Amino acid sequence: MPNHYSLQLDRDALPLGTRRLPPYESLCLQIRIRRRAYINDSVVQELPEYAQAFTLLHEMLLHEDSARVFLSFCLSAVGIPINDQDQMLNAIASFYLDMGVDPASSTCSGGAIPIVLADILIEYEAHDETQAVNRAIQESMELDMFKAVPATKSSIEGLKKVRLEGSGSMEECMICLEKFCVGQEATCMPCSHVYHGDCIAQWLERSHLCPLCRFQMPTDSGSSR
């Protein structure tokens, strides 16, 4: 039976009496996952809650394509399959825009970083209690596998530098969506995807997965695959 997802969004750490965000440079996205199994409309299994926080720069969310890449990374890191993410991606992106961030300002105000709280309830129907328990164990193992794990510092520093020549090269860095210039130096992943050096370094410091193909860079607990 397919999963049924319920998403609730809220915000925290905003100055009292304000509706629009002050010009912060970043915000915190905190995702909380709850899983619940039913048999004939009765709850038979409920996994412990799992929460993970992500710091997102406003510039990551100013363009729809880059926003979806970063938000998809966050949802994947808490075990949400890519095929189930579309509605949640749209809801989180819209919620962020409705908060009224001023993209023209680059000044960071004092005070706490705004927090977007995403509460995701995953419900599914089980045929019997054994199936519910087995599925809970399987999903818990999958969640452990997809948790955000940074790449090793040595593997990031060892990435190959390339000089872009125009034809055959990607037109833009798929992290920041800025166009590459002919002759510009970029960083090439082992999977052959190319990014700005700073962009991919910052990405890999949070996740060892290539943003485009999920190629796995080495981590302190294992090697690339």
From TrEMBL:
<dbReference type="GO" id="GO:0008270">
    <property type="term" value="F:zinc ion binding"/>
</dbReference>
<keyword id="KW-0863">Zinc-finger</keyword>
<dbReference type="GO" id="GO:0061630">
    <property type="term" value="F:ubiquitin protein ligase activity"/>
</dbReference>
<feature type="domain" description="RING-type">
    <location>
        <begin position="173"/>
        <end position="214"/>
    </location>
</feature>
<dbReference type="Pfam" id="PF13639">
    <property type="entry name" value="zf-RING_2"/>
</dbReference>
<dbReference type="InterPro" id="IPR013083">
    <property type="entry name" value="Znf_RING/FYVE/PHD"/>
</dbReference>
<keyword id="KW-0479">Metal-binding</keyword>
<protein>
    <recommendedName>
        <fullName>RING-type E3 ubiquitin transferase</fullName>
        <ecNumber>2.3.2.27</ecNumber>
    </recommendedName>
</protein>
<dbReference type="InterPro" id="IPR001841">
    <property type="entry name" value="Znf_RING"/>
</dbReference>
<keyword id="KW-0862">Zinc</keyword>
